[in-house]
Design a protein that fits this description.
It is a single chain. About 60% of the residues lie in helices and about 10% in strands. By secondary structure, the chain is mostly helical. The radius of gyration is 17 Å and the shape is globular. Ligand L6WJOLX4 binds near residues 14, 58, 81 and 205.
Length: about 210
Protein backbone atom coordinates (compact mmCIF):
# COMPACT_ATOMS: atom_id res chain seq x y z
CA UNK A 1 0.00 0.00 0.00
CA UNK A 2 1.58 3.26 -1.07
CA UNK A 3 -0.31 6.53 -1.12
CA UNK A 4 0.60 9.98 -2.37
CA UNK A 5 -1.83 12.76 -1.51
CA UNK A 6 1.07 15.24 -1.95
CA UNK A 7 4.80 14.78 -2.63
CA UNK A 8 5.55 14.84 1.11
CA UNK A 9 2.38 13.38 2.66
CA UNK A 10 1.54 9.66 2.80
CA UNK A 11 -1.81 10.54 4.40
CA UNK A 12 -2.72 13.59 6.53
CA UNK A 13 -5.20 11.40 8.40
CA UNK A 14 -8.89 12.05 8.66
CA UNK A 15 -10.26 15.25 7.20
CA UNK A 16 -10.52 17.44 10.28
CA UNK A 17 -13.20 19.48 8.54
CA UNK A 18 -15.49 16.43 8.76
CA UNK A 19 -15.16 16.50 12.57
CA UNK A 20 -15.18 20.26 13.05
CA UNK A 21 -18.82 21.39 13.08
CA UNK A 22 -19.82 17.94 11.73
CA UNK A 23 -22.75 17.76 9.39
CA UNK A 24 -25.33 15.30 10.77
CA UNK A 25 -26.08 13.89 7.31
CA UNK A 26 -22.37 13.11 6.64
CA UNK A 27 -20.90 12.12 9.98
CA UNK A 28 -22.36 8.60 10.03
CA UNK A 29 -21.09 7.81 6.52
CA UNK A 30 -17.72 9.39 7.37
CA UNK A 31 -17.15 7.19 10.43
CA UNK A 32 -18.64 3.94 9.11
CA UNK A 33 -16.49 4.28 5.98
CA UNK A 34 -13.42 4.48 8.21
CA UNK A 35 -14.58 1.46 10.22
CA UNK A 36 -15.09 -0.49 6.99
CA UNK A 37 -11.68 0.48 5.61
CA UNK A 38 -10.09 -0.69 8.87
CA UNK A 39 -12.05 -3.96 8.85
CA UNK A 40 -11.06 -4.65 5.24
CA UNK A 41 -7.38 -3.75 5.60
CA UNK A 42 -6.66 -4.94 9.14
CA UNK A 43 -8.67 -8.08 8.43
CA UNK A 44 -7.26 -8.68 4.95
CA UNK A 45 -6.37 -12.30 4.37
CA UNK A 46 -3.52 -11.17 2.08
CA UNK A 47 -0.09 -10.18 3.39
CA UNK A 48 0.05 -6.37 3.44
CA UNK A 49 2.90 -3.85 3.51
CA UNK A 50 2.78 -0.07 3.87
CA UNK A 51 5.40 1.81 1.86
CA UNK A 52 5.24 5.12 3.70
CA UNK A 53 6.56 7.81 1.42
CA UNK A 54 5.54 10.91 3.39
CA UNK A 55 4.19 12.22 6.68
CA UNK A 56 1.70 9.90 8.30
CA UNK A 57 -0.23 11.44 11.23
CA UNK A 58 -3.23 9.84 12.99
CA UNK A 59 -5.49 8.18 10.41
CA UNK A 60 -2.46 7.92 8.08
CA UNK A 61 -0.54 6.09 10.77
CA UNK A 62 -3.60 3.90 11.38
CA UNK A 63 -3.68 2.85 7.71
CA UNK A 64 -0.05 1.76 7.91
CA UNK A 65 -0.66 -0.02 11.23
CA UNK A 66 -3.30 -2.16 9.52
CA UNK A 67 -0.48 -3.70 7.49
CA UNK A 68 1.83 -6.40 8.82
CA UNK A 69 4.97 -4.55 7.75
CA UNK A 70 5.91 -0.89 7.43
CA UNK A 71 8.72 0.56 5.33
CA UNK A 72 9.24 4.32 5.55
CA UNK A 73 11.28 6.87 3.62
CA UNK A 74 13.62 9.20 5.58
CA UNK A 75 12.82 12.53 7.19
CA UNK A 76 9.08 12.11 7.59
CA UNK A 77 6.91 11.82 10.70
CA UNK A 78 4.47 9.20 11.89
CA UNK A 79 2.29 8.68 14.94
CA UNK A 80 -1.14 8.76 16.52
CA UNK A 81 -1.20 12.46 17.45
CA UNK A 82 -4.91 12.63 18.38
CA UNK A 83 -4.37 14.10 21.86
CA UNK A 84 -2.63 17.07 20.21
CA UNK A 85 -5.98 17.82 18.54
CA UNK A 86 -7.85 17.41 21.84
CA UNK A 87 -9.40 14.15 20.65
CA UNK A 88 -8.91 10.53 21.66
CA UNK A 89 -7.66 7.68 19.49
CA UNK A 90 -10.46 5.08 19.56
CA UNK A 91 -9.89 1.63 21.07
CA UNK A 92 -9.23 0.05 17.66
CA UNK A 93 -6.62 2.72 16.74
CA UNK A 94 -4.89 1.85 20.02
CA UNK A 95 -5.06 -1.91 19.49
CA UNK A 96 -3.61 -1.44 16.00
CA UNK A 97 -0.66 0.42 17.54
CA UNK A 98 -0.28 -2.23 20.24
CA UNK A 99 0.16 -4.79 17.46
CA UNK A 100 3.36 -2.98 16.50
CA UNK A 101 4.98 -1.51 19.62
CA UNK A 102 5.13 -2.47 23.30
CA UNK A 103 2.45 -1.26 25.70
CA UNK A 104 4.79 1.13 27.52
CA UNK A 105 5.90 2.86 24.30
CA UNK A 106 2.29 3.01 23.11
CA UNK A 107 1.06 4.54 26.37
CA UNK A 108 3.72 7.26 26.24
CA UNK A 109 3.15 7.91 22.53
CA UNK A 110 -0.65 7.97 22.69
CA UNK A 111 -1.04 10.13 25.79
CA UNK A 112 1.41 12.72 24.47
CA UNK A 113 0.24 12.52 20.84
CA UNK A 114 3.87 12.07 19.89
CA UNK A 115 4.94 12.11 16.27
CA UNK A 116 8.09 10.09 15.55
CA UNK A 117 10.73 10.79 12.92
CA UNK A 118 11.54 7.91 10.57
CA UNK A 119 14.61 7.00 12.66
CA UNK A 120 12.74 7.22 15.98
CA UNK A 121 9.91 5.10 14.56
CA UNK A 122 12.42 2.43 13.52
CA UNK A 123 13.98 2.43 16.99
CA UNK A 124 10.68 1.71 18.78
CA UNK A 125 9.39 -0.72 16.14
CA UNK A 126 6.61 1.49 14.80
CA UNK A 127 8.15 0.85 11.38
CA UNK A 128 10.17 -2.19 10.33
CA UNK A 129 12.59 -0.80 7.75
CA UNK A 130 13.83 2.48 6.30
CA UNK A 131 13.99 2.88 2.51
CA UNK A 132 16.04 5.50 0.69
CA UNK A 133 13.12 6.57 -1.54
CA UNK A 134 9.75 5.43 -2.87
CA UNK A 135 11.25 3.02 -5.45
CA UNK A 136 13.42 1.44 -2.74
CA UNK A 137 10.37 1.20 -0.45
CA UNK A 138 8.46 -0.67 -3.14
CA UNK A 139 11.42 -2.97 -3.86
CA UNK A 140 11.74 -3.73 -0.13
CA UNK A 141 7.96 -4.34 0.06
CA UNK A 142 8.21 -6.86 -2.77
CA UNK A 143 11.09 -8.60 -0.99
CA UNK A 144 9.03 -8.83 2.22
CA UNK A 145 6.05 -10.25 0.33
CA UNK A 146 8.14 -12.74 -1.68
CA UNK A 147 9.09 -14.67 1.49
CA UNK A 148 5.48 -15.90 1.67
CA UNK A 149 5.95 -17.85 -1.57
CA UNK A 150 7.53 -20.53 0.64
CA UNK A 151 4.74 -20.51 3.26
CA UNK A 152 1.51 -22.43 2.91
CA UNK A 153 -1.08 -19.71 2.05
CA UNK A 154 -3.87 -21.15 4.21
CA UNK A 155 -1.54 -21.57 7.20
CA UNK A 156 -0.30 -17.96 6.79
CA UNK A 157 -3.82 -16.56 6.42
CA UNK A 158 -5.27 -18.45 9.40
CA UNK A 159 -2.31 -17.46 11.57
CA UNK A 160 -2.72 -13.76 10.71
CA UNK A 161 -6.48 -13.73 11.19
CA UNK A 162 -6.28 -15.65 14.46
CA UNK A 163 -3.79 -13.14 15.82
CA UNK A 164 -6.14 -10.28 14.83
CA UNK A 165 -9.37 -12.07 15.71
CA UNK A 166 -10.34 -10.35 18.97
CA UNK A 167 -9.85 -6.79 17.65
CA UNK A 168 -11.76 -7.61 14.45
CA UNK A 169 -14.55 -9.35 16.34
CA UNK A 170 -14.89 -6.37 18.71
CA UNK A 171 -15.39 -4.02 15.78
CA UNK A 172 -17.84 -6.31 13.98
CA UNK A 173 -19.95 -6.53 17.12
CA UNK A 174 -19.65 -2.87 18.17
CA UNK A 175 -19.77 -0.77 15.01
CA UNK A 176 -22.94 1.04 16.07
CA UNK A 177 -21.68 1.66 19.62
CA UNK A 178 -18.36 2.95 18.29
CA UNK A 179 -20.21 5.28 15.90
CA UNK A 180 -22.39 6.65 18.68
CA UNK A 181 -19.37 7.24 20.92
CA UNK A 182 -17.64 9.09 18.08
CA UNK A 183 -20.67 11.28 17.33
CA UNK A 184 -21.27 12.19 20.95
CA UNK A 185 -17.55 12.77 21.61
CA UNK A 186 -16.89 15.11 18.67
CA UNK A 187 -20.16 16.92 19.35
CA UNK A 188 -18.94 18.20 22.71
CA UNK A 189 -18.23 21.96 22.76
CA UNK A 190 -14.84 21.45 24.43
CA UNK A 191 -13.78 19.06 21.63
CA UNK A 192 -15.00 21.49 18.96
CA UNK A 193 -12.99 24.28 20.61
CA UNK A 194 -9.84 22.12 20.53
CA UNK A 195 -10.33 21.24 16.88
CA UNK A 196 -10.87 24.93 16.06
CA UNK A 197 -7.62 25.82 17.83
CA UNK A 198 -5.72 23.04 16.04
CA UNK A 199 -7.04 24.17 12.64
CA UNK A 200 -6.01 27.75 13.43
CA UNK A 201 -2.52 26.45 14.23
CA UNK A 202 -2.33 24.66 10.86
CA UNK A 203 -3.41 27.83 9.03
CA UNK A 204 -0.95 29.99 11.00
CA UNK A 205 1.88 27.56 10.15
CA UNK A 206 0.95 27.73 6.48
CA UNK A 207 0.84 31.56 6.51
CA UNK A 208 4.50 31.74 7.73
C1 LIG B 1 -14.20 9.19 26.06
C2 LIG B 1 -13.65 8.12 25.16
C3 LIG B 1 -13.63 8.56 23.76
C4 LIG B 1 -13.18 7.47 22.89
C5 LIG B 1 -12.89 7.96 21.49
C6 LIG B 1 -14.10 8.41 20.83
C7 LIG B 1 -14.10 9.11 19.72
C8 LIG B 1 -12.89 9.49 19.04
C9 LIG B 1 -13.02 10.80 18.40
C10 LIG B 1 -12.28 11.14 17.41
C11 LIG B 1 -11.26 10.27 16.81
C12 LIG B 1 -10.82 10.79 15.51
C13 LIG B 1 -9.55 10.18 15.07
C14 LIG B 1 -8.83 11.14 14.19
C15 LIG B 1 -7.93 10.78 13.33
C16 LIG B 1 -7.25 11.75 12.47
O1 LIG B 1 -6.67 11.35 11.48
S1 LIG B 1 -7.28 13.40 12.86
C17 LIG B 1 -6.26 14.21 11.66
C18 LIG B 1 -4.87 14.28 12.15
N1 LIG B 1 -4.04 14.90 11.13
C19 LIG B 1 -3.20 15.86 11.42
O2 LIG B 1 -3.02 16.25 12.54
C20 LIG B 1 -2.45 16.40 10.26
C21 LIG B 1 -2.30 17.86 10.33
N2 LIG B 1 -1.58 18.33 9.18
C22 LIG B 1 -0.25 18.41 9.16
O3 LIG B 1 0.46 18.05 10.08
C23 LIG B 1 0.34 18.95 7.90
O4 LIG B 1 -0.66 19.61 7.18
C24 LIG B 1 0.96 17.88 7.00
C25 LIG B 1 0.01 16.72 6.73
C26 LIG B 1 2.25 17.36 7.65
C27 LIG B 1 1.33 18.50 5.63
O5 LIG B 1 2.11 19.64 5.83
P1 LIG B 1 2.31 20.67 4.64
O6 LIG B 1 2.63 19.95 3.39
O7 LIG B 1 3.25 21.72 5.14
O8 LIG B 1 0.85 21.26 4.39
P2 LIG B 1 0.06 22.33 5.25
O9 LIG B 1 0.27 22.10 6.71
O10 LIG B 1 0.41 23.68 4.74
O11 LIG B 1 -1.45 21.95 4.94
C28 LIG B 1 -2.04 22.21 3.67
C29 LIG B 1 -3.53 22.33 3.83
O12 LIG B 1 -4.09 21.08 4.27
C30 LIG B 1 -4.87 21.29 5.47
N3 LIG B 1 -4.83 20.04 6.23
C31 LIG B 1 -3.75 19.35 6.59
N4 LIG B 1 -4.11 18.22 7.22
C32 LIG B 1 -5.46 18.20 7.28
C33 LIG B 1 -6.42 17.28 7.81
N5 LIG B 1 -6.08 16.16 8.40
N6 LIG B 1 -7.73 17.60 7.66
C34 LIG B 1 -8.11 18.74 7.02
N7 LIG B 1 -7.24 19.64 6.50
C35 LIG B 1 -5.93 19.37 6.64
C36 LIG B 1 -4.19 22.46 6.12
O13 LIG B 1 -5.06 23.08 7.03
C37 LIG B 1 -3.95 23.33 4.86
O14 LIG B 1 -5.24 23.83 4.43
P3 LIG B 1 -5.41 25.18 3.62
O15 LIG B 1 -4.61 25.02 2.37
O16 LIG B 1 -4.93 26.28 4.51
O17 LIG B 1 -6.89 25.29 3.36
Amino acid sequence: MSQQSSPTVFSAGLDIMEMYKPKPDRVKEFWTTLQDVWLALYGSSFPTVAAINGHSPAGGCLLSLCCEYRIMCPNYSIGLNETKLGIVAPKWFMSSMLGAIPYREAELALTSGRMFSTDEALKIGLIDEVASDKADAIAKSEKFLSQFAKIHPIARKLTKLNLRHSALEWMQENKELDLNIFISFVGQPIVQKSLEKYLEGLKAKQAK
